[in-house]
Amino acid sequence: MGSKNRILIIDDDPIARAALEMLLETESYELVFAVNGEEGWQKILTLKPDLVLLDAVMPGVDGFAVCQRVRAHAQVRDLPILMVTSLEDQDSRLKAFEAGTDDILPKPYNELELKTRVRSILRMNRFRRLLEQAERLNRLAKYDELTGLPNRALLHEQMTQWITHAARQRQVFAVFYLDLDQFKQINELLGQNQANALLQQIGRRLNECIGAGDMLARLVGNEFVVVQEARGKLDEQEISAAVEDLLSAINMPVLFGLHELRLTACAGIALYPADALQVEDLLKNAETAKARAKAQGKNQYQFFTAQMNFNLIQRLALETQLRFALEHHELRLFYQPLMLLQAAHPELLGVEVLLRWQHPERGLLTPEHFIDVAEQSGLIVGIGEWVLEMACRQGKIWHDQGLPVRLSVNTSSLQYRQMSWLNTVDTLLTLTNFEPRFLELEITESLLMAQDKEQDNRIVVLLQHLRERGIRLSIDDFGTGYSALSYLRRFQVDTLKIDKSFVSEVATDPSDATLVQAIIAMAHGLGLQVVAEGIEEDAQHGFLKNAGCDVGQGYLFGRPQPAEEITPFLQKHFAYQKAHEVSSFPNEPE
Ligand code: C2E
Ligand code: MG
Ligand code: MG
What we know:
CATH topology of the largest domain: TIM Barrel
Bound molecules: ligand C2E, magnesium ion
CATH superfamily of the largest domain: EAL domain
CATH class of the largest domain: Alpha Beta
Radius of gyration: 40 Å
Low-confidence stretches: 586-590
Strand content: 15-25%
């Protein structure tokens, strides 16, 4: 197999050397010789033989000394050595073993014995090397190359053992699933090499932070798992403290040249046996808890609860069904009237377009049941396009019937992250032949709270482009989100919609009343039209009208309805407005 085995013969006696050469001639070995201990030692280092036949007694550096040097040298320590001693010399035999020889070959040589010993020792050596190689491969298969930490395979193997042991001892343990926040951005910012160095450093920090009996593994990318040593009982506070320690270890500053970077992570905690009995289930539950922590923001942790799994399963099912909702034509649009409040009688201005899902089993669903799933799965982008197209088609039908309805269409922040959104809007307006000035896009405050400068600028430009087309922009649910008014200067919008949570108490709660009055005054100061949502009672309507609110929306005027049901309402109102010659469409506030 492969190249010939190289045997180094170190012997000061030329006759002994010749004898060995002759005896081993028939075997296909490569034989090399050294005539004293020193030369032998040098050849061991340079020629890296597979086996040394070493004479014990030599002048100068003798065989025992060579043997000792070999065993003390890291690179050749495992070299097989057969020491040659004369048969009677018991003392030398003992000394040879002490010096570290693998075996002893008695002089004078017995041909058969010599050949067998040499062959078997070489075979053993090859076997040992194969073992080492297998071990190296094993290491590669079980350890993460970047950080040197155990990988998922080894984690799985060890956790399986821990579980067996813990079950027998009635012990418990905690599993922490850690995930660095915003690592994708960091990766882009630093580049792969620096980001890798960062991961290595995080790995080292976590390693220093865990207990001696704990295990740390890296799964993929920016995900680490810590399994705490099993114990008799678990203390929630202790576990929390341990997780907080890990999170703060991650949060310590990292220096990159002149820059200081502070990372955060989120963690999910699952407990054995309370949360799961199997390795994969424990990891899955810890990961689920981690996802829940992430949803709450950066630097958070969460204990797993069974409810999470239930929610997760439901969500997944819902997401799958929602994927098909579009192609199965299960989505519907409802329309709710928007009324001008400052006229003598409330006049119709337009409608808000509201999405519904005709679910095959659960019936008609309002967005609260699926809009989160649509957002988180990204499905909202496709759905949003469909909504805009269908709404504009319907709007065009109304316009053609002489009903100059303004459409307010809800949009998700996700749609504005898409570079193609502007294009989509243009295409759909052209396709449906709907006049842009009759279109209002409702956006949420979260869109205006961009993550970074670049994104911020992009959104400013995008909104500008939309307004240049005559499309109006409206901030929906004003007051529920960030309510940082400063953005209203930077982002030009036309309308502000006061959330219904303020409207509901406006006639009964003085502080809500004051707040709503202040919002209206401020919005007017900025030249914005104000819409109040969720008007259900006359008292609310009266208050808002007095406070100068421009537009009202709510069950008091009309519920969301399908197009065919709301059309008669639109016809009636526009006919009235026409008869009394009031402008039905003041596109601008004042
Ligand atoms: P929103 O944009 O704030 O819509 C107003 C919500 O208030 C609607 O709920 C409407 O039915 C409800 N509403 C109107 N008047 C009253 C009232 O007098 N009393 C009460 N209690 N509620 C009233 P809906 O239709 O369930 O929609 C909920 C949210 O879902 C919307 O809130 C909007 O944020 C989102 N949404 C709806 N359609 C779409 C869509 O096509 N795309 C996106 N991205 N989001 C949508
Ligand atoms: Mg809305
Ligand atoms: Mg709203």
